[in-house]
Structure formats: C-alpha cells, structure tokens
Amino acid sequence: MNLGRWHLDLISAGTFALDGGAMFGIVPKPLWEKKIPADDKNRIPLDTRCMLLRDGQRTVLVDCGMGAQWSDKERDIYRIEGHLDASLAAAGVAAAAITDLVLTHLHFDHAGDVARLDASGIARLTFANARVHVGRRAWEHAHAPNERDRGSFRAQCWAPLDGPERDRVVLVEDAGGRANILPELEALVCEGHTTGQLLPLAGARDQRALYGADMVPTRAHVPVPWHMGYDLRPVVVMEEKRRLVELCAAERITLVHEHDTSFPTSSIVRSPKGELVPA
Ligand SMILES: [Zn+2]
Hints:
Layout: E1 2-3, E2 6-19, H1 20-24, H2 29-35, E3 43-54, E4 59-62, H3 72-77, H4 84-90, E5 100-103, H5 108-111, E6 115-117, E7 123-125, E8 131-135, H6 136-142, H7 159-162, E9 169-172, E10 178-182, E11 185-190, E12 197-204, E13 207-211, H8 234-250, E14 254-256, E15 265-266, E16 268-270, E17 276-278
Parallel strand pairs: 4-5, 5-8, 8-9, 13-14
Antiparallel strand pairs: 1-2, 2-3, 3-4, 6-7, 10-11, 11-12, 12-13, 14-15, 16-17
The chain binds zinc ion (ZN).
C-alpha cells in the first residue's frame, strides 16, 4: 500500500491468545464468540501485526510484538507462536536496517521485542541502529504503573533503554490529541486504553492509514461499546473511538487492526441504518 511518501507493508510479529471475555469487556460471550470463536480455555487468537514503512531513506517499524523473552509456561499460557524475524526477512529487511521504531505504548504485546538477551544473557537492543519513539506520558506511565495494569508491563523487554541506550529514546510530545513523529507520520493520542497511547497516522491526502493499536484491535472492536476489559478508562475509550471511527469514515482513512488474525484492515462506511461499520 502506498501512503504518500511511504510504502506500507503489514507484517506479523507472531500470534498469541488472550481470554476472550477480557478482550471484549462487558459484551456477552454469545455475541463476541460469533465474531471470534474461543478455544477450550476461553482464549481467542490474536495477531501482533506491525506497520513497516519505507520511503527510501527511513525504515520505520510500528510496534514489535511479544518478542522472545518468555518461559515455556508463559508460551503455553499465552499460546505464543511465530516471530517477527521471519516476517522481516520475507520483506527483505534486516533488523539493523530499521532506522526508527515507533511504540504505541509499552504493553508487553507491543514492546516485547525492543531487547533480546545475547549469548551471555545481556539484554541488547533488537534494532541496533533505531531510534525508539514513544509518547512521553506513555513512557512515564510504564515506569510507574498501577495495580491494575502492572501485569501488562515487562521492563526486561526494554531494559537497555533504561540504562546504557537511554539516548536512543525519543519522547514524543503531544498537544490537542495529536503528535508529530516524522514527515507524513503523525499520531492521534488516546488516553482511554492506557495513558498517552500513540495511534500512528501515516501518509498524505487520500492515501492515509491509521494504526488502531489497542483502540480498535480487531474488526470486531469497531462498534463503540465493544472494547477491552483491560482499558483503564472505559468511558474515555468510547469517546475517543467514536471520534477516530468518524475521522476514518469522513476522510477515507484505512484503519489497520494490530490484533485481528483475519482482517488486517477495515474501511469505515455508513450503513443504511446510519451506523458506522467496517467494510
Ligand atoms: Zn495495550
């Protein structure tokens, strides 16, 4: 997909699974399981789909999946399968060629592969030459989580950024719900799911894509009340999602689903009943 100056590829960093009830909050199971069936442990399959943006100078990766720092027990609990390396290789991109890593937020299924352990057990940056863009407030929140979301952060995933590689971090400032990251790559900034989440918006004019991250993780999450039980501020999620879905419809922006194993993107259109629905 061409988005203004950028060529976009959507690449998978592997799949995992989470409790379907937690993924759909107050929506009853008889409704959500028609959209995404659960396994015998009530888990639904989820992708970790990244945006790979190239303009001939920069190679930008948006989010990086779960990474490799998981025990066998955790792999079983989260049904972790696959990895970013195969997808990057298929796209012809070496990890060292990534110039910019943009993290929507620091939850483990988005920032899990910032660092890997080397043969001596020392954490090294996976993308050795990349600057790491993260919202200032998301960064601060990840370093002081609350009891409710502490389990979603694993500091070992980004350990070098707290130590010797701190100068790699670009803290993205926001104002009025928007932030600028790179040319033709801005972000909508959302507070409902977690503090200061960046939703990258790439391209120009009629060639734009919005990365839905954890605001619209799957196509089933397009309806406003269908949001995750993990969200810190549910009412704020609904207000923000209404605005971003309306924006996608009005300005014909392609919506990218990070976690949907079946539908990588949606267009948002108005149904005969007047509702905004995915197509
Ligand atoms: Zn999240």
